[in-house]
Amino acid sequence: MSTPAVSELHPGLQGPVVTSAQSRRLKEAAKLHARTWRAKSKRFLIEGQQAVGEALAHEAEVRPARVTVNGAAGGRPAGALVDLWATAHAARRHPELLAAAAAGGVRIRQAEPEALAGVADTVASQGLVGVCEHLDVELSDVLTRDARLVVVLSQVRDPGNLGTVLRVADAAGADAVVCTSSSVDVYNPKAVRATAGSLFHVPVVTGVGLPEVVELGRARGLQVLAADGHPPAHDLHVPWESGLDLTRRTMWVFGNEAWGLPEADRALADAAVAVPIYGRAESLNLATAASVCIYESARSLAP
User: Which pTM does this prediction carry?
Assistant: First the structure.
């Protein structure tokens, strides 16, 4: 049996070419599909041009601030890209990413498509897979008196929904997204992919309880609104008729895809708000309802 041909080493990549998913570093990266390993290593996987580009842009943006008092360079920033594998085809298509990664001190290796297939989460990989440091922040760092719009996800279990809501929060200019300890891991590969790079734009808090989040948000002057269609609830489109003021600084709380917010969670909020249904649909899915609520607040808060 003949040995499979190996791609010629691209000049912008380091050799030898990785030909098997069983290589040591790729095997370590593949472990990051498991939440327990992500939590232990404080690292996560990214995949594709968009995610890699956003990771590099994020590090370039925050790197100048990371210096010690004597002027020496500080440690790698949160969210830093530490490992990158690229196929020869991807390297030819995205030379600017390789240059930026090399300038940032990222370990870059060329890999055969078959080798990356064991790590990639997508069926049709773009030939770029990286490992990043976690970048979540402390709750007290984002729930300040300057925060105007905060999005909280409680008991959200679908990674695609979580990632989509985070992307919407970024687009609407939210100050932070909080994922409670009862929600799916924001570093789940499907969640990361659904954010389309927004994970590197908006501060994210993880692993906290909803009562703690609500208590601190209220102490910082935010009104706490639960997105919940069960009566009694304010109508999102005519809030003034029931005395709801969406021009106030707001913390939105969104619940589980199937059952919404349990009564105990809803009771933590100052008020419940329902998205009106004008047609015959029974309801909106979580990501859609959250998008409507977040943008309604962003519009009302706009100067």
Answer: 0.90
